[in-house]
Amino acid sequence: MGSHSTPGFKFIKGSLGIRSEHSGHSNGGHSHSHDHGHTHTHDLPDGPGLFDQRDLPMYRTDWNQRGFTVGVGGPVGSGKTALVLALCQLLRDDYGVCVVTNDIFTKEDWEFLNKHNALEAERMRAVETGGCPHAAIREDYSMNMAEVRELTQKYNPDVIFIESGGDNLAANFSRELADFIIYVIDVAGGDKIPRKGGPGVTQSDLLVINKTDLADAVGASLQVMVTDANRMRHDGPVVLTQAKNGIGVQEVASHIFKAKELQQKLSQ
């Protein structure tokens, strides 16, 4: 991967700009606390969000301190872990790959990946968030960032996947943590999900509609889902997958490395 010795970054702003989320945010939001012992705030969105108004990546130069990081989010059971496993299996022979999983009180997802030999165990880390899954990837991502930096220093990987804990359609990654954001929904949730919108659906860099093989069983229309996704995302990229069967995974990987190449080129 391309590395540069001078740390730092510059912002490339979308029409809504890019916000620093590390210390939380209160403008237009509300504050509350959880069992993990700190108070944080949430934005109150005034609509489902627009793809062309999403926070764009930070084109940075500190790749030797934090490798190219891909956030994988989505509701509980949508197939995030299955997609991460499939991506690891696809890429591990030709690329350096590391993974950070997030669960609230367990290491369930890490254990699943380890059981299925996604990567060497040492290349995967588990974060126990102890509270809201979205807080650990947005308002206070310090635990995830620490793992990403340590993995970068130890392995200098081509890509690091951060799998968030399962959350709702309003959850999304901070751009200070994720260079590329994938949001995973699944057909079993119903063909209404794309038109519900929310930052994950509308403002992720890539929307993945998973478990397409279940469409007939649950009475969902893939055509409706794709049409609604394209409309809600203003034709932002959408990929149909069966992660468990490896279908569509190569296309997901192509989007990831295309974004990496562009970001590192613009960082030079």
From TrEMBL:
Domain CobW/HypB/UreG nucleotide-binding: 69-238
Keyword annotations from UniProtKB, A to Z: Chaperone, GTP-binding, Nickel insertion, Nucleotide-binding
Region (Disordered): 20-51
GO-annotated molecular function: GTP binding; GTPase activity; nickel cation binding
InterPro entries cross-referenced by the UniProt entry: CobW/HypB/UreG_nucleotide-bd, P-loop_NTPase, UreG
Keyword Cytoplasm: no
Residue spans crossing the bilayer: none
UniProt keyword annotation of GTP-binding present: yes
Pfam family, one: cobW
Family: Belongs to the SIMIBI class G3E GTPase family. UreG subfamily.
NCBIfam families in UniProt: ureG
Name this polypeptide is given: Urease accessory protein UreG-like
Gene this protein is translated from: LOC106062878
